Amino acid sequence: MPEKDDIYDWGHTFDTDDDGDVDVVDPTVWATKEDNLVNEAGLYGALSDVSDFVQPAELVGANEVYASGWDNDVGLAEKDDIYDYLHQIDTDDDGSLIDESALTDFFEVQLDNEAGLYGVLSDVSDFVQADEANSITEVMLKAVNEPTDEYALTYEATTGDFEWHTPSELITAGDHIDWSNATLNVSDDWADSMFINYVASSMVLAGGLLEEGTNAGTIKANALIALLRTSASDTGNLVTVTRGDSDNIAIPAADTKYRIILQYNSGDPIFKIQTGGANGTTDIGIGHCMKEADNTVHFLNSGRRLQDGVAKLHRRAKDLRTIEITTTKRSKSIYSFIYNSICYSYISMS
What we know:
The structure is a single chain. The radius of gyration is 55 Å and the shape is rod-shaped. It is of the alpha+beta class and 350 residues long. Among the domains are: 2-86, no CATH class; 188-305, no CATH class; 311-347, no CATH class. Helix content is 25%, strand content 23%. The protein is built from eight helices and 15 strands. The strands form five sheets. Strands 10-9-11-12 form a four-stranded antiparallel β-sheet, with no helix packed on it. Strands 3-6-7 form a three-stranded antiparallel β-sheet.
């Protein structure tokens, strides 16, 4: 308390051993002290007699307890000043500030005057000691450890609460796919189009080789797995289809070349024999066959057994090679080309 220090400094000038008695008796010293006191903003006025000094015994004692009796103390004005200062916050004068409602008003005014430091406090309970044991620190946020016993902090918008959840709880709480007993609940059309629609085309994946049928003049197509489109469009959905052995497929007429066609038929493919080619989407060729008049059967395994892209590369390479050969220009305007394994040459007349 600065007032006590001021009183001590003043009294110690005369009571040098702090025993409560005035020790300085030299008049010249008194005169000096008088001047000093006058210079101190007229503290107690100018002293002219030793009796003007208040005895230390009348000052606030070291063990004296602050109480309501200090209000308007006529013996020592400093007590009244101290009381007026403390009574602003200790309104019941019990020496405790814990239960004072006036403390709220005091800090509201003081903090508001300090450029809104921490805002205006509305209750003394706003002053709390930080619970460091239950606080999230920057070190914790930056920590890296093993993914065990992990929790995620979430905000519940409905209640306005923050909550801790494990990752599994977060998945369970919302819409999700239950993988504990998962089954693929999607159509073949969707699955095939998602994974292979743009990298493959209608083709035989496995099997489907031809051989003579059990009966004379027939052909047999062995079991196969294939990809067929569900529509005639080049971008129609691809589906995986299977077909078991088909024996004794009749060959209509002798000495006629036929194509063996695998055709999509609403999920169950069928084998057909026809002279025309397949459309390459809902139906594909798997080979050729022909019979003689005596029912001798001839067959050739061919057809769409390569992915469309690979097949087109082979076809493109063949076409390019044909162009190279047939448009070879030699001196004297001699050109040559190949057609059906017969080489023709001519001389340009132009």
